[in-house]
Here is the input.
Amino acid sequence: MTYIIDVITTVKSTKRARKSLEKAPKQVVQAYATWARSVFVVGLAEIQKIPGYHDEPLSGKLKGIRSFRLSQGYRGYYRVVKEEVEFVIVEEVNKHDYKKVERLFGA
Here is the structure.
């Protein structure tokens, strides 16, 4: 029996995410780059298992969105989009402001 496992290894950052990273502290930008590079190397499913990222699905109005820790105060928010190819879109990096994230995702 053969199993085919889709491994998500591509991170696509939106214009909004790139702009928010420009305003973020250097260590947050470096943490994001490390996270994205790690997703490329081992896949999203393996990165989600790393306790330090506190990768978790959000609930309520933000169901379908996941967040991960970049520093004590900054989190990245993303959703997995499946079309022809599966990839991750990092939508926002901010100081843990869920009201802003709700507005961003239209919740």
Remarks:
- The chain has one domain: 11-104.
